[in-house]
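Internal tracking record. Fields below are filled automatically when a chain is submitted to the structure queue. Please do not edit lines marked as system-generated. If the sequence contains nonstandard residues, flag them in the REMARKS field before resubmitting.
Queue: standard
Priority: normal
Entity type: single polypeptide chain
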Amino acid sequence: MHDGSDSVTTGEADPGVVVRKRRKGIYVLPNLFTLAALFGGFYAIVMAINGRFDLAAVGVFCAMVLDSLDGRVARMTNTQSAFGEQMDSLSDMVSFGAAPALISYVWALKELGRWGWFAAFVYCACAALRLARFNVNTGVVDKRYFQGLPSPAAAALVAGFIWLCTDLGVRGGEVTWAMFVVALYAGLTMVTNVPFYSFKDVSMKRSVPFAVIVMIALGIAVINIDPPTVVFGVFVSYGLSGYVIYGWRKLKGHQTSLISTSTDEPEERGLHK
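SYSTEM-GENERATED OUTPUT FOLLOWS
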């Protein structure tokens, strides 16, 4: 008699071994966060079309915050599902792939003609490749690091640059080539094998010294002084940190590849050095 759980015992496994089946249902709570993140990307595109580039950038950042919550909510409520994983990837493609590419094009890159849509397309294509590679390499990549710049951070680089320039009163037509460089750097760094720290080994459940809470409060206060400048500076630092980690590992003679063992796709082993 079925007890309502997701555990089953199959005849192919050893006697007494319980095999977990992947949940196939659609859960409301985590997917609400995913849909909200998708709306953030859609809102950013609409605001860019309407010429409100500051709000477009904010929409991307809101999508980034919501995207960071849906997975945590799913794990906390034990509502992970295959549907949720696919939905999250599609949402990320809109919010962190298509939206930043279109916003940067409308704001500045269209002034460069074919070079402009070239940069926008390269960014968008690299975001798609980054998300696809992340999905297939989930089981073989060191969880402490991302393989290449994560798409939300890449989107934050592009949106942060636009937000900062807009806040300073700089028009897109005045910094077309700077936008070109930022878009290409963010896009191409997503598909490199450079390691970026994932912060996944930071546990929110462990107790921390009082000084850590004070530092967090100070960080929030610093961001409040000038949000566009501070936020963009933070993501520029993160966007460069991967190359620092890569260079440090190379200097120390440590393994730079994040792929440890890939038994399912052995032909890829030589591609991640």
